[in-house]
């Protein structure tokens, strides 16, 4: 199921990777970051393997104290380390669909404008977050009228066409559908759209077929948050079943986006880091790639709740856990495309504000490549080492 997007882009990156390393060195960062940024960027190292390294970024007009394009200190780290960005929230329905009739692209446009000025590629996230709690209220309560299936299809296709038309020529890889699994049912989740159209599968299939019509050569991704912890095994099985159904129905899905919010909520005494189900995780990846699907790491960070508060100890264990994960993922080098962190600086990483990830001691989570004072951390070096060894 390999498409022209993947073939052409990896060939182009291979050409870049052939350039002498001095020419691929990171761009010089701005004030406040220069002393903390290594000489060779993570993106330059990743390009040697035919992929890009990137990060989520936000747009917060009027607020420069954020992991956003309005924060020059933060963008300096992105420019120095990354070649690819993805909007954190700015393309989601809540951000761009204030109501059924209108769109607001102002925040997303500011990310694209900054990225183009900074020489960054852009990924799209997401054309449909298939969960009611992340639908805008108007969509959860929408009156689909006398022909609900037709009206739901019209809403969805209009949304996908409008977004992809706006960023045509700029964005060619999209998370078409995000997080569609209902854990209680072990099946795709029901939403207002799926009830109108008859099933969640009808919505998911239409989203991908519409995206393919819009992007014949693009990369269409199903994105979800499973990773290699034992607690995720059931979710992995549900995602695998979803993908198998899509492939069997001829749905044009090209890749699985693995969010990779890897977790340490307890310590494995045998390894000194969080437990991970390596054998089962490999089996899952083998099944996915065996269907002809490619892989992306789309939202990487580390939850460190089980680790001691001592920063040196914690950073070392986070780096060790990260290196183990990336070494395994990069064994799938022939199938693995781009790698993105879900933010580059601890202070602005979403885990700081996500209750289930909180540390019992109340300390800041240290799961991003850079600390809140913009210093590169051991986790950053672990990623670089894995990329260089691939």
UniProtKB/TrEMBL annotation:
Coiled coil: none annotated. Pfam families: Glyco_hydro_10 (PF00331). The keyword Hydrolase applies. It catalyses: Endohydrolysis of (1->4)-beta-D-xylosidic linkages in xylans. The keyword Transmembrane does not apply. Residues 63-386 form the GH10 domain. Residues 1-25 form the signal peptide. Its EC number is 3.2.1.8. Keywords: Carbohydrate metabolism, Glycosidase, Hydrolase, Polysaccharide degradation, Signal, Xylan degradation. One of its GO terms (biological process) is xylan catabolic process. One of its GO terms (molecular function) is endo-1,4-beta-xylanase activity. It is an enzyme of class 3 (hydrolase). InterPro entries: GH, GH10, GH10_dom, TAT_signal. Belongs to the glycosyl hydrolase 10 (cellulase F) family. This is Beta-xylanase. It comes from Aurantiacibacter marinus.
């Amino acid at each position: 199921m390999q498409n022209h997007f993947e073939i052409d882009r990896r060939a182009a990156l291979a050409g870049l990777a052939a350039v002498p390393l001095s020419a691929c060195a990171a761009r010089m960062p701005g004030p406040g970051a220069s002393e903390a940024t290594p000489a060779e960027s993570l993106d330059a190292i990743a390009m040697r393997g035919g992929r890009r390294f990137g990060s989520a970024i936000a747009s917060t007009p009027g607020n420069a104290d954020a992991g956003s394009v309005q924060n020059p200190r933060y963008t300096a780290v992105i420019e120095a380390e990354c070649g690819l960005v993805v909007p954190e929230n700015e393309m989601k329905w809540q951000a761009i669909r204030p109501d059924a009739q209108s769109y607001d692209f102002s925040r997303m446009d500011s990310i694209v404008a900054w990225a183009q000025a900074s020489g960054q590629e852009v990924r799209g996230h997401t054309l449909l977050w298939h969960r009611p709690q992340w639908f805008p209220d108007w969509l959860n309560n929408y009156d689909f009228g006398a022909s609900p299936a037709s009206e739901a299809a019209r809403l969805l296709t209009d949304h996908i066409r409008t977004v992809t038309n706006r960023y045509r020529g700029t964005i060619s890889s999209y998370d078409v559908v995000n997080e569609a699994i209902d854990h209680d049912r072990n099946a795709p989740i029901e939403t207002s759209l799926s009830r109108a159209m008859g099933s969640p599968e009808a919505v998911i299939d239409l989203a991908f077929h519409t995206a393919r019509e819009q992007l014949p050569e693009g990369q269409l991704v199903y994105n979800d948050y499973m990773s290699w912890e034992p607690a995720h095994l059931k979710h992995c099985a549900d995602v695998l079943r979803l993908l198998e159904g899509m492939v069997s129905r001829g749905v044009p899905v090209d890749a699985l986006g693995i969010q990779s919010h890897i977790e340490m909520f307890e310590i494995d005494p045998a390894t000194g880091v969080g437990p991970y189900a390596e054998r089962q995780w490999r089996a899952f990846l083998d099944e996915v790639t065996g269907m002809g699907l490619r892989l992306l790491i789309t939202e990487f960070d580390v939850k460190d709740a089980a680790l001691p508060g001592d920063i040196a100890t914690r950073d070392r264990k986070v780096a060790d856990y990260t290196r183990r994960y990336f070494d395994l993922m990069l064994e799938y080098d022939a199938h693995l495309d781009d790698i993105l962190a879900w933010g580059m600086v601890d202070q602005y990483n979403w885990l700081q504000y996500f209750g289930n990830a909180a540390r019992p001691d109340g300390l800041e989570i240290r799961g991003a490549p850079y600390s809140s004072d913009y210093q590169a951390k051991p986790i950053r070096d672990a990623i670089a080492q894995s990329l260089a060894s691939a």
